Amino acid sequence: MNIWEVILAFLIVVLILVSLLSNVLVLICFLYSADIRKQVPGLFILNLTFCNLLMTVLNMPLTLAGIIYKKPPGGDQLCHIVGFLETFLTTNSMLSMAALSIDRWIAVVFPLNYHSKMRYKDAALILSYTWLHSVSFPIVATSLSWVGFHHLYASCTLYNKRLEDRTQFMIFTGVFHSLSFLLSLIVLCFTYLKVLKVARFHCKRIDVITMQTLVLLVDIHPSVRERCLEEQRRRRQRATKKISTFIGTFILCFAPYVITRLIELSSIVPINAHWGVISKCLAYSKAVSDPFVYSLLRHQYKKTWKDIINKMLKRSSINSSALTSESQSRNILQFPGLVQSPPPPKWVSGGSVQT
């Protein structure tokens, strides 16, 4: 292994550890908090979390083995199964992000009709479509033997070895990325830009009310006025930052890999082997960023973790106090002479009562 391969292997190890820890934390919060389970977006987050966990446990370690040994780990049969899962899980995670954006769009643009438009039944139907959509492409690829170990990406993925099927494989790959990456990106941009438009409209209304209030309050302290204006600026930037994070992480993680796959089909530009693995690592990094972008940095998840930690600390303090009292009682039973009797009262002297 050269230095580049060592760096890439170390990067994948870090991705596995962080992704496993962060997604397990999301799962624990979901199981612990009844409020999170009651919310409809929790179904989409749960589905996204399971996809990320399976990708972390199954695909990332085999890519690490592919970098080290430069051959399909576990044989061709295992590689076909892992390649099937890689295609399915990647598509499912993309569509889950699109479903979350649709949920936010309905909640912000149609707040009065949200509970009637987005129920558990509707969320289950959306998830059913994402699963059917995601599983259709790997089924077709597996039936046509278009799944195998790709040395450029050091992983089991979509791969065609037969020259006579090159045209059909190019069409299939283009349709696959159009209906997974491009479709999800269009949905993300449409819904979140609508959300941003509504958020800016509400910010303008709040800004007008704030400025009118500051004008009427002539005797207000300058520091209070400055804090109001600072909060006004933060309010304008908050929605933009969140939506930029949602769309930006999606493009940054998936776009390099998708573009590399499409350029690879043209055979016009040679692709460096290290770049192929780097683009694959960027796609894997979405499993690391999703728990923070969609879950762990939200107020409700932070509150849940505080409750879990406080509950654990209370239990540990109760257990430690119980162990202390138990050890003291054992010492009394084993060494009764070590326990001093309390001194007599001051009004008792020499066995007689003082008057």
Automatic annotation (TrEMBL):
Alphabetized Pfam families for the sequence: 7tm_1
Compartment(s):
Cell membrane
Keywords, in A-Z order:
Cell membrane, Disulfide bond, G-protein coupled receptor, Membrane, Receptor, Transducer, Transmembrane, Transmembrane helix
Ranges for the region named Disordered are: 335-355
- An example Gene Ontology CC term for this record: plasma membrane
Instruction: Kindly give the PROSITE patterns that the UniProt entry links to this protein.
Output: G_PROTEIN_RECEP_F1_2
Transmembrane ranges, per UniProt, are 6-32, 44-69, 81-102, 123-149, 169-195, 243-263
**An MF annotation (GO) of this entry:** G protein-coupled receptor activity
Q: Cross-referenced InterPro entries, in alphabetical order? A: GPC_Orphan_Receptors, GPCR_Rhodpsn, GPCR_Rhodpsn_7TM, GPR26/78-like
Membrane topology recorded in Swiss-Prot or TrEMBL = Multi-pass membrane protein
Q: Does the keyword Signal apply?
A: no
Q: Which residues form the G-protein coupled receptors family 1 profile domain?
A: 22-294
Per the record, the GO terms for biological process are:
adenylate cyclase-activating G protein-coupled receptor signaling pathway
Keyword Heme in record: no
Cited function = Orphan receptor. Displays a significant level of constitutive activity. Its effect is mediated by G(s)-alpha protein that stimulate adenylate cyclase, resulting in an elevation of intracellular cAMP.
The identity of this protein, by name, is: G-protein coupled receptor 26
